[in-house]
Write a structure and sequence with these properties.
This protein is α/β, with parallel strands linked by helices. The chain has two domains: 180 residues, Rossmann fold (3-Layer(aba) Sandwich); 153 residues, Rossmann fold, CATH 3.40.50.1400. The protein contains eleven helices and nine strands. The strands form two sheets. Strands 2-1-3-4-9 form a five-stranded mixed β-sheet, sandwiched between helices. Helix 1 crosses helix 2, helix 3 crosses helix 11 and helix 9 runs parallel beside helix 10.
Length: 347
């Protein structure tokens, strides 16, 4: 039987926490036209003239704090997921891992699949919620590379899996051990996006940010909206945990630049909750399938410290999916498209 190819793609990580490697990573990441979606000249001046030279050393220091004996957590858990998924799917499948930026590259992973003469390729961007700057960028890169092949196999792309029941259950399971009912409030903190990128995704041109609570419920108009999918993920996890709506807040983190980003900002929510006298917060970060800088450093350390400065006592981070066996089961379902809920797929 001919083998089926599977390509898992996550965002990326520097090869090391050294300043040169971090600068190299930031340069490739931020020069992506889907990440900083401004004209090429301004993007080049901003990234190569300001962000990379000045932010590189600061970011390298943070990456050194993130690094473990096994290296980057994002890469470590990516490799673990690849190995465990290969075992789960069996010998009729070939699973490769790539990073959108840096290594292992998408080009090298595709070349490995091509060499093994797979009959088709299933591309799974490891971002639960669709965004042009993440999933969209992966799809574009894969298509650009494969378009140069003499023979192109059948290729399918997973657009999103924000409502995958297996994924939802793992996040809920990870939270249960902390007893969510004992915390003053729950926060679902998603990676932020500029508002302009959300409005670009609104093909109606009159819904996003113009309709009250436009993201609070997924519908036919906003079904590809990153924010609406994020709210839906939070709702589904909350339902698993039997959390009433007033017990949790959906917010967004990791802003860059001065342009307006999707609100509310997580840091502002934390400050407001501290001022209300709340002491203990449980925080999810369901935009990430593996622990990374945004979870282990930004939330677990930086946000925790800020919250305590404002009078709070503790922020407990709910860990990501990582190499949880139930996540590998869910990932296999995503690959095979036999999950409990329909998946959004571009074929």
């Amino acid at each position: 039987m001919r083998k089926q190819g599977v390509l898992l793609v996550n965002l990326g990580t520097p090869d090391s926490p050294s300043v040169p490697d971090v600068r190299k990573y930031l340069d490739e990441f931020l020069m992506d036209e889907r990440v900083i979606d401004i004209n090429a000249i301004n993007r080049t001046l901003l990234v190569k003239g300001i962000i990379v030279p000045f932010r590189g050393p600061k970011s390298a220091k943070i990456y050194k704090e993130l690094w473990t004996e096994t290296g980057s957590p994002l890469l470590y858990y990516g490799v673990r997921a690849k190995v465990l998924l290969q075992e789960k799917l069996g010998k009729d499948y070939v699973v490769e891992l790539a990073m959108r930026y840096q290594n292992p590259s998408i080009e090298s992973a595709l070349a490995a699949l091509k060499k093994k003469q797979v009959e088709n390729i299933r591309v799974v961007p490891l971002f639960p919620q669709y965004a042009s700057a993440s999933t969209g960028s992966v799809i574009q890169k894969v298509m650009e590379l494969v378009s140069k092949w003499q023979t192109i196999p059948a290729i399918s792309f997973v657009n999103s899996f924000h409502d995958n029941d297996g994924m939802i259950e793992v996040f809920a399971e990870n939270a249960r051990k902390y007893q969510p009912e004992t915390f003053d409030h729950i926060i679902f903190s998603f990676h932020g996006l500029p508002e302009r990128q959300l409005t670009k995704a609104d093909h109606s041109g009159k819904y996003c940010l113009q309709t009250p609570d436009c993201c609070s419920r997924l519908n036919d108009v906003n079904r590809f909206c990153y924010s609406a999918q994020s709210h839906d993920t939070a709702r589904l996890i909350a339902e698993k945990l039997h959390l009433p709506r007033e017990r949790y807040t959906v917010s967004f983190q990791s802003r860059l630049g001065n342009a307006p980003w999707k609100k509310p900002y997580t840091i502002h929510v934390l400050e407001e909750l501290a001022k209300k006298g709340m002491k203990r917060l449980l925080v999810f970060s369901p935009a990430f399938v593996a622990d990374c800088l945004e979870t282990n450093i930004e939330i677990a350390r930086e946000y925790h410290d800020e919250f305590r400065n404002w009078g709070g006592e503790k922020i407990q981070l709910v860990e990501s999916l990582n190499d949880n066996p139930k996540w590998i089961d869910a990932l296999a379902g995503i690959v095979l498209n036999d999950g409990k809920k329909p998946l959004s797929v571009i074929s």
